[in-house]
Specification:
Strand 1 (15-17) and strand 2 form a beta hairpin. The chain starts with a helix and ends in an 8-residue tail after the last helix. The chain is mainly alpha-helical and 65 residues long. The chain has one domain. The chain has a two-stranded antiparallel sheet. The chain is 62% helix and 9% strand.
Length: 65
């Protein structure tokens, strides 16, 4: 993700979507967001405390017992 974000920023890609202007810096940060979600997911998968990771993932889901 970081390589893609950096290359888009270096290329100077710029566009407007729905009245919002995305300059290279904005695009860089938008591409980084999914990377942060993937990093969090990987940390939770490798967590020593598996029960805590499962509880965090299932938070807000109704349970029968």
């Amino acid at each position: 993700m970081s390589i893609l974000a950096s290359s888009l920023k270096a290329a100077g890609v710029q566009f407007t979507l729905g009245g919002w202007e995305f300059d290279p810096n904005s695009i860089y940060h938008m591409v980084q967001m999914p990377g942060l979600c993937l990093l969090l997911y990987a940390i939770l998968l490798r967590s020593d405390n598996v029960q805590q990771a499962i509880a965090w993932r299932d938070r807000g889901v109704a349970s029968t017992a």
